[in-house]
Design brief:
36% helix, four-stranded antiparallel beta sheet, 308 residues, 10 helices, single chain, elongated
């Protein structure tokens, strides 16, 4: 549904995007992550036929972003950093204006507007001027506009920026449901917990180049190693002899906890638990530790070299 191959963009002597390759099938969300200035927004603008690439190629729903730009714009919904709202219009006028641009029949358009405003808790603001909207309301209305023509591809740049927690949750739930509707979505965000919750794939971009691409689990495993397990104890470790089953590596310890790397969890975890109990330790809990996307992201942008 979304394809980019060696996509590159130069601005005079500056290369903003350098050979980006992306493939997002229908029904999936790709989180495009990276520091400010890494090339995320420029990539989105090329994919939405706003900026022509210097080299490489890309397509949206089978349409080339350069030679079939009009068709691409009909198939993509874009939420950009700048919402582009017209402050003197009210919400209804603004959305009907865009519905007309998309060629949506007026009655159908009004039904979609009502449905979407209700979905994002904005139905009460139908007649309110956009210049009076809060930042969070403006962001939600821009998302409504992006969804109005029911596009099969969504390119979302910081969709929950400036929103209160309740509104942000509403938007994340909506993105999750949109993925289930067989859309392909690219999500640019600095909210790594949001990316971890929503994304099927992650691409980390730095200085215009993608330095890491894969599923959440693949990226975590590559950067952080295999999963670890942690035992929480009911008493201090003062007299523990440190004996462990073969193949179990102690990776951390505290006053009343132990952390292990285990090669074969199904086989070794029961042995490890029995050994701790036989050592006289009262085990309060024994569970797999959580490896966060945030930790993997920081490892990537701080330590990985750019790929050739």
């Amino acid at each position: 549904m979304i394809v980019a191959e060696e996509l590159t963009k130069d601005f005079e002597q500056f290369r903003a995007v350098d050979g980006v390759n992306i493939h997002v099938p229908a029904g999936q969300v790709l989180a495009l992550l990276g520091p400010n200035g890494a090339g995320k927004t420029t990539t989105v603008r090329m994919l939405s036929s706003i900026l022509p690439p210097t080299s490489g190629q890309a397509s949206i729903a089978g349409f080339d972003v350069v030679s079939q730009a009009v068709a691409v714009r009909s198939k993509v919904g874009v939420l950009s950093e700048q919402q582009g709202l017209y402050g003197r219009m009210n919400a209804g006028e603004y959305l009907e204006f865009f519905g007309n641009l998309y060629g949506i029949e007026r009655q159908v358009c009004r039904q979609r507007i009502k449905q979407l405003l209700n979905q994002f808790d904005l139905e009460w603001a139908l007649k309110k001027r956009l210049g009076e909207f809060s930042r969070g309301m403006r962001q939600k209305l821009a998302l409504v506009r992006a969804l109005l023509h029911q596009p099969p591809v969504l390119l979302l740049d910081e969709p929950t920026s400036a929103m209160d927690p309740q509104s942000a949750r509403m938007v994340r739930d909506s993105i999750y449901k949109l993925r289930c509707d067989e859309r392909a979505i690219i999500l640019c965000t600095h909210n790594l917990a949001e990316a971890e919750e929503l994304a099927d794939q992650v691409a980390i971009i730095r200085r215009g180049r993608i330095i890491l691409y894969g599923s959440l689990n693949e990226i975590k495993r590559k950067l952080l190693g295999e999963q670890e397990f942690e035992a929480q104890l009911s008493q201090p470790l003062n007299h523990w002899d440190g004996k462990l089953p073969q193949g179990v590596l102690l990776t951390g310890r505290g006053e009343n906890w132990l952390r292990f790397h285990v090669d074969r969890p199904d086989e070794q975890n029961p042995q490890l638990l029995n050994m701790l109990l036989e050592s006289g330790l009262a085990v309060r809990s024994f569970q797999e530790t959580t490896q966060s996307l945030e930790k993997a992201y920081l490892e990537a942008v701080n330590n990985l070299e750019d790929q050739p």
